[in-house]
Amino acid sequence: MIQVAPLLVLAFLAITFLQSGYDKIKDWKGNVEWLTGHFANTILAKQVPFALGIVLLLEVVSGILCVSGIIQHLVQDVVIRGLGFYGAILSCITLLFLLFGQRLAKDYDGARTIVIYFIPAVLVVFWLN
Questions:
Q1: Nearest 5°: phi and psi at 124?
Q2: Dist. CA 116–CA 83, nearest whole Å
Q3: Is 103 exposed, middle or buried (0-12, 13-18, 19+ CB in 10 A)?
Q4: Which residues cross the membrane (predicted)?
Q5: Could you point out which of 89, 92, 97, 105 has its C-alpha 20 to 30 Å from the C-alpha of 61?
Q6: By the 8 A CB rule, do 106 and 122 touch?
Q7: Per-domain residue ranges for the chain?
Q8: DSSP state of 44
Q9: pLDDT score, position 81
């Protein structure tokens, strides 16, 4: 039986992370420049390209796992502990990394925004567990 709600949240996470990853790849230099200023007064000041690379990897893998989970659910009717579950878990971890960065930079509005993404990500982990 197809469960629509988890599929919709997985699609939301996939779109979010794959688009964000694409943007980072397309405008790597611009992202590094902006983030260097954003994290200038933090412990990440000299680690921006490395940290951005880690976030890029997490986002792309999260997005791919979410898409794979949707396909797996539709083709194999796998709901519990399928690829989507692992995509949702990695999405939560990715969002925690992003939240940590925003809090470090004292960008509290940015941190609040990440919570908006975190809520459905945790919800889909709950549904698929």
A1: -70, -30
A2: 23
A3: middle
A4: 47-71, 83-104, 110-128
A5: 105
A6: no
A7: 4-128
A8: T
A9: 75
For tokens 């690829």, the residue is 83
Three-state SS for 57-120 is HHHHHHHHHHHHHHHHHHHHCCCCCCHHHHHHHHHHHHHHHHHHHHHHCCCHHHHHHHHHHHHH
- Smallest Cα–Cα separation from 7: which of 105, 60, 61, 85? 85
Of 18, 96, 102, nearest in space to 56 by CA: 18
Q: How many whole angstroms from its chain centre is CA 29?
A: 21
SS3 at position 26: helix
pLDDT digits (tens, 9 = 90+) for 58-108: 999 999 999 999 999 999 876 667 999 999 999 999 999 999 999 999 999
pLDDT digits (tens, 9 = 90+) for 105-118: 999 999 999 999 99
Q: Identity (one letter) of the amino acid at 113?
A: T
Q: What is the pLDDT of residue 78?
A: 66
CB 95 within 8 A of CB 114: yes
* pLDDT for the residue 3: 84
CA atoms of 58 and 67, how far apart (whole Å): 14
